[in-house]
# Entry
Amino acid sequence: MNISERFKQPNQIAILIDPEKCQSEVVIRNLVEKIHFSGVDFVFVGGSTVSEKEFEQTIGLLKQLITIPLVIFPGSAHQVSEKADGILLLNLISGRNPDYLIGHHVQAAQKIIESKAEVISTSYLLIDGGSHSSVAYVSQTTPIPHNQVSIAYNTALAGKLIGHQALFLDAGSGAKHAVSVSMVIAMKELGQPLIIGGGVKSLEQINTLHKAGANVVVIGNKIEEDIDFLLDIRNYIAEKTDK
Ligand SMILES: CC(C)=CCC/C(C)=C/CC/C(C)=C/CC/C(C)=C/COP(=O)(O)OP(=O)(O)O
Ligand SMILES: O=P(O)(O)OC[C@@H](O)CO
Ligand SMILES: [Mg+2]
# Structure
């Protein structure tokens, strides 16, 4: 099954590895071992302020170690690699910065074709999560207010009409509040694979987002703070599979 087909499955989890924060080989090996044991569905790799060298080192090692789909979640054109299985070709359509609507894409286009990674064109909406996120800062864009479901819906609808294959709502790394259940439920109507991230720190939140219709819940910071959360995730996945 290719990645865009996999994204349509329910109740999935992706772990985000930010190369900027994961430089030691020992740390990465240990993390990958726990990720495999946990049974999560994807590893996403990317960050808003990653250097090319950090990115290349991390993706090179991950490619050797990872047995589940490795998907690039790039913050800039230099985060493209032939070593990944897929790449989220993000369009930051909650913002109005042309660099994040088409600029980085032009810079990356040749490298993406050469990489042969599966390209998943993705509407990327930044939703206010109660703290100023790195993505908002780097992209110099303003997130959609947390409770403005109709603005988010119309933005995502435009992305779907443009032809994007997936929809990613991100409250921003380390958000105080994850994307709301009412926003997730509203977005489900669009019938696109729905990826939700930012500020998810508990199994309860994962479960609530899954029940609301998120196909993929992305966890970044929580694993950086507490790697053993992957054991809790393992139990969560086992329980879901039993049902
Ligand atoms: C077309 C290509 C190849 C790149 C541009 C892609 C676009 C439009 C990106 C959107 C904006 C952006 C900067 C996204 C970065 C996404 C990401 C991986 C965020 C998570 O990590 P950090 O924001 O680094 O989190 P921390 O602040 O915790 O380090
Ligand atoms: O680090 P956290 O808060 O889990 O966020 C993950 C990701 O969606 C950020 O772009
Ligand atoms: Mg970062």
